[in-house]
Design brief:
The chain is α/β, with parallel strands linked by helices. It has 14 helices and 14 strands. It has one domain: Glycosidases (TIM Barrel, Alpha-Beta Barrel), CATH 3.20.20. One of its GO terms (molecular function) is 6-phospho-beta-glucosidase activity.
């Protein structure tokens, strides 16, 4: 097709996470993960054991229906599918010396289906799925021992699947650790919160583990490409005040440090200043410093919202849905869950990351969570989700603009390409997919799959390599 800025070979597809789709939490030798005791998502207290009201225990039953789902992805024309491997399927407790063969065999079958349909796998090694045993026994990533457990896990995956998987991501949204310690780092949260010293030490441990995985991949699977994955969020000054601009810089630094370490191999000066001013001394060995020099091949990221920042305490009323801080931007509308919608922000992030890191970029999460209504049209059950089409169209147009700017973008995987259990709220009513799954927040439903209107729209976008987008 002509009249499209998307290059030949641009990877179009979708993304999911094991804990939000697979279900089968106690099948195939799987152990418990932190997600199995988070029935209400990020903000609510954890439970002691899995409870029936945790929708993630069944998810959308992808564990048993993966072939059906992958066939639907192929029908849309996916060239790539991002999914995660559940750590506790491979090492049920996390600290074993030998992996669980049933878990490895399951992902072999998933890869078989992807290969049958010509879909490139993009695998996340750890997507908010720390084994529960590592959280309860070791304190999660606050404990240096987790580096070795993760290293063994990563080595196992590269040895088993390295010849079949080209693209790997080490940790999902690694910069969320300070904001969601239990979900992101398997860190039990005591009354009063986790001390900053422990949080920053856990951050360091994850960064070292990520770098070690990158090194191992180059040893075991030299053809593989390893990327980091960060939560991106453009930040605007609430006013033209220089103080607000400085507040933006400080907030930006808090997010960008993760990508800086992954792409440059050392901690930047502004971060070392932050540690000094907080009175934090990280335990960093010479081996750690050497490990961090194993930088990534590309940078991947999620993009859902932007925020504003201000230095004025009187204006710091946090906007609903700004889960990473900041204040609401009065110029933007928001989704039903309060996430501010900003397509232009995606172009800004792409340019910022490319200018800063000069590494190929991969948009591996972007989408609109909404309450969809299943209806019948011409005798077929579907969802007329014009609102989702408009959201995705406007964001993809901005990706095209970034490509015109000269940014190197490898591909785009829409988040929750099939309806999944929300990570932030643990609801199924917060739907992202092109495919409707008949399951409700109370656990009822047939689990049948139905193509939404956006299903055909996205198929046209892929088929035309972006030429069908409305500019």
């Amino acid at each position: 097709m002509t009249n499209t800025p998307f290059p030949d070979g641009f990877l179009w597809g979708g993304a999911t996470a094991a804990n939000q789709i697979e279900g089968a939490y106690d099948e195939g030798g799987k152990g418990l993960s932190v997600q199995d005791v988070m029935p209400r998502g990020i903000s609510a207290p954890r439970s002691e054991q899995p409870t029936p009201d945790n929708l993630k225990l069944v998810g959308i039953d992808h564990y048993h229906r993966y072939a059906e789902d992958i066939a639907l992805f192929a029908e849309m024309g996916f060239g790539v599918y991002r999914f995660s491997i559940a750590w506790s399927r491979i090492f049920p407790k996390g600290d074993e010396t030998e992996p669980n063969e049933e878990g490895l065999a399951f992902y072999d079958r998933v890869l078989d289906e992807l290969e049958k349909h010509g879909i490139e796998p993009l695998v996340t090694i750890s997507h908010y799925e720390t084994p529960l045993h590592l959280a309860e026994t070791y304190g999660g990533w606050t404990n240096r021992e987790l580096i070795g457990f993760y290293e063994r896990y990563a080595r196992t995956l590269f040895a088993r699947f390295g010849a079949r998987v080209k693209y790997w991501l080490t940790f999902n949204e690694i910069n969320s650790l300070l904001h969601a310690p239990f979900m992101s780092g398997g860190i039990p949260i005591p009354e009063g919160g986790v001390p900053a010293q422990q949080l920053y030490q856990a951050m360091h441990h994850e960064l070292v583990a990520s770098a070690r995985a990158t090194r191992i991949a180059r040893e075991v699977a030299p053809e593989a490409k390893v990327g980091c994955m960060v939560l991106s969020m453009p930040i605007y000054p609430l006013t033209p005040s220089p103080d607000d601009a400085r507040a933006v810089m400080d907030a930006d630094h808090g997010n960008l440090v993760y990508g800086d370490v992954h792409t440059r191999g050392a901690y930047p000066g502004y971060f070392l200043r932050t540690l000094r001013e907080k009175g934090i001394e990280l335990e960093i060995t010479e081996q750690d410093r050497d490990d961090l020099t194993n930088t990534v091949d590309f940078v991947s990221f999620s993009y859902y919202m932007s925020i504003a920042e201000t230095a004025d305490p009187a204006k710091r009323a946090q906007g609903e849905g700004n889960i990473m801080g900041g204040v609401s931007n009065p110029t933007l509308e928001a989704s039903e869950w309060g996430w501010q919608i900003d397509p232009v922000g995606l172009r800004l992030v792409l340019n910022q990351f490319w200018d800063r890191w000069q590494k190929p970029l991969f948009i591996v999460e972007n989408g609109l969570g909404a309450r969809d209504q299943l209806v019948e049209v011409d005798g077929e059950k579907t969802v007329v989700d014009d609102y989702r089409i408009a959201y995705l169209n406007d964001h993809l147009v901005q990706v095209g603009e970034a490509l015109e700017d000269g940014v190197d973008v490898l591909g785009y995987t829409s988040w929750g390409c099939i309806d999944i259990v929300s990570a932030s709220t643990a609801q199924l009513s917060k739907r992202y997919g092109f495919i409707y799954v008949d399951r409700n927040d109370d656990g009822t439903g047939t689990l049948d799959r139905y193509r939404k209107k956006s299903f055909g729209w996205y198929a046209d976008v892929i088929r035309s390599n972006g030429a069908s987008l409305t500019r």
